[in-house]
Write a structure and sequence with these properties.
Thiol Ester Dehydrase, Chain A, 2 domains, seven-stranded antiparallel β-sheet, five-stranded antiparallel β-sheet, 2 helices, globular
């Protein structure tokens, strides 16, 4: 199963050329490699090495970057994770492969643990109609209880809605409103969070996005639906006024 991380290139992530700083790109790749390997092994996992990484194309400020990781080799205690980093222009949809490589991850056997599972079938579980992106909860995102701070959870959900809406409309999108958001389950430090988003309605100038936030304990595979909400995203022109979505019409996308 492919693990996908989607982010924006903000000025703080860029170098003096206005393109994604290479260290930030490598951090994205290492993160998805870790999540893919840890999710596969269900054991403590660390990065051992990576193949040569050549950046063939830049990702510019304001573009989306999509990092993917997929387990392609499994040994007794090690895994090879194929990683890719793509840049995407939000409005035009132009995509460029920035780099591709392999990270070698190690998950030592503990007492009573057997061999690692075999390589999963290619593409298994990847296409279910939802756009899925992952993150991991680090200590800087947690409150004094050791769980994900609500503000950061809202930020992640709003970003997922923005990406989903932008890919549907191919226009400059801004957040107009959100429905009530209920947090049903805490998300702990070290958990993987998966943001699942999909379009539920397209209007003349707006798109409604359903977002679910799931928490997953990497060592056990336990999954919890932690939050859900709807976000209304509106297409705007260069003056900030609402503008019709190219090819859009008022209709439901999902029954």
């Amino acid at each position: 199963m492919t693990v996908r991380l989607i982010d924006m290139v903000f000025p703080g992530d860029a170098n003096h050329h206005g393109t994604l700083f290479g260290g930030v790109g490598l951090a994205h790749l290492d993160k998805v490699a870790f999540l893919a390997a840890a999710r596969h092994a269900r054991r403590p996992t660390v990065t051992a090495s990576c193949d040569r990484i050549d950046f063939a194309a830049p990702a510019r400020i304001g573009e989306l970057v999509e990092a993917t990781g997929r387990v392609v080799r499994v040994g007794r205690t090690s895994m090879g994770v194929e990683v890719e980093l793509w840049a995407e222009a939000p409005v035009s949809g132009e995509r460029r492969l920035c780099t591709r490589g392999v990270f070698n991850m190690v998950a030592p056997c503990g007492e009573g643990q057997g061999t690692l599972p075999p390589v999963p079938a290619e593409g298994a579980g990847d296409d279910d109609g939802w756009l899925r992106a992952v993150e991991i909860v680090f200590p800087t995102w947690t409150n004094h209880y050791g769980t994900l701070y609500g503000g950061d959870a809202l930020k992640l959900m709003a970003k997922a809605a923005f990406v989903c809406a932008t890919r549907r409309a191919r226009a400059v999108m801004v957040l107009a409103a959100s429905s009530r958001i209920d947090f049903a389950s805490p998300i702990r430090e070290g958990d993987m969070v998966e943001l699942a988003s999909r379009v539920t309605r397209v209007g003349r100038t707006s798109v409604t996005i359903e977002v679910e936030l799931w928490a997953e304990t990497l060592l056990t595979g336990e999954r919890r639906r932690s939050a859900a909400a709807e976000f209304a995203m509106v297409a705007v022109d260069e003056t900030g006024a609402s503008t019709p979505i190219p090819g859009g019409a008022s209709h439901l996308e999902i029954a």
